[in-house]
Amino acid sequence: MILDIAGERTIRDLLNEQASLRADWPALEFEEADGTRTTLTYQELAAQVQAAAAGLSKIGIGHGDKVTIHMANCPDFVITWFALAWLGAIMVPSNTGNEVAELEYVVEFSDSCAVVTEPRYLERIKVATAALPEIRTI
């Protein structure tokens, strides 16, 4: 694969290209702590990224928006990151070990308008963003 460094290609272009050229090849392999494995082909990854991007767009996330991702390492993290790039939004990573004050700092300093998280972190995110009016959605 040759990256078009000087051109106008985006993550969307590269993912679509790989989904077309290598539809059934493994694109993402993930192993849970319990040994459960998830494998997504390029075609499956592209479809899930497109679906996630459509969902994010439907709730108002768009080009230039900064969105904090507060998730453990998992396929959904990668899918969400690609979906944000698909929309031209900016992914702001947050360490799942961050406490409330650290989360508030990351979200406020980055000027995030939304947070994507997992159910197990939801209460911590709600507390950390309660005083941040720029957060449109969690």
What's the oligomerization state? single chain
* SSE string: HEEHEHEHEH
Record field, number of beta strands: 5
Q: Helix amount, in percent?
A: 40-55%
How large a portion of the residues is in β-strands, by DSSP E? 15-25%
Q: Mean pLDDT score, rounded?
A: 92
Anisotropy-based shape: globular
Rg of Cα set: 16 Å
Low-confidence runs? none
Short synopsis of the structure:
This protein is of the alpha/beta class and 138 residues long. The protein is built from five helices and five strands. Strands 4-3-5 form a three-stranded parallel beta sheet, with helices on both faces.
What would you say this structure looks like, in words?
The relative contact order is 0.14. α1 packs antiparallel against α2, α2 (42-58) packs across α3 (75-87) and α4 crosses α5 (122-129). With 138 residues, the protein is of the alpha/beta class. The model has no long low-confidence stretch (mean pLDDT 92). Helix content is 43%, strand content 17%. The radius of gyration is 16 Å and the shape is globular. It has a 3-stranded parallel sheet with strand order 4-3-5, sandwiched between helices. It has 5 helices and 5 strands. The N and C termini lie far apart (36 Å).
